[in-house]
Design brief:
alpha/beta
Amino acid sequence: MARILIADDFHPSLTGLLEEADLDFVYLPELKREGILKHLQQGTEVLVMRSKTRADRELLATGPALKLVARGGAGMDNIDETAATDLGILCVNAGEANSDSVGEHTLGMLLSLLHNLARADREVRQGLWQREANRGVELKGKTVGIIGYGNTGSAVANKLAGFETQVLAYDKYKKGFGKAGIEEVSLQVIQNEADIITFHVPLTRHTKHMVNSDFIQGCVRNIWLLNLSRGEIVDTRAVISALESGKIRGFAADVLEHEDPRSMGDADREWFDKLTASHRVVLSPHIGGWTAESYQRISMVLAAKIIQYFHK
């Protein structure tokens, strides 16, 4: 049994680098949970995965030799990190690998909101040429609040540098990161001063529905809101209510509380239909970190971390 199980799709650079390091692996991207459990039971030391499998306590405890879980992506919400710690299993991700991709996607969605690009495109395709109805708002001079200043939040801040904005940033777990053009502030300051608020935080019990009615109403200005972290960060119904009242001027999301409309139940379909009916909403199907470049970088970053684990 191979020491490393790769149980999802990755760029060929991952297996190429592992081969160069003379590490024993098996690449089975179509493997489902039952097959993963079987491999773990037979002595796999490293599990490499993405999002399709949940590494819960049952799965993690199945592998007597399992010592490392490497996830291709930024979030760790499909891995029970508490169970991993209890079992002595190290968990790593590749958050630094797709931060530029998500940063660019954030700027793209923001500009689309401010300049009505998505709506204008749809109208022109329908034979409509409505200039005044699509008059935009400039990003220059706006105050942008970034909540979560990790790999992605800092990438967003760096990419805002040329737009002549005031950038405020808050991170619950980091201090001392302020620098020229980026002011480290409290969450309250962002709510008091920001025109635009963009979220780049992990999903935890502390951040679930962090964007709720209280948070939105606590913002002094009517805001443009973006979520490019995890769908459950946002209470979607609260956002819809704020869109209807005008408290939220526009909403962009690369992630939703329930993703993939094809599998939505009636309750989710209700809020989804309201979102998609609004011309002040821009949506994308969780592709912020899904570029050709990030696909390769994720594999290279994970390979380096796995190699380092074996050669520590």
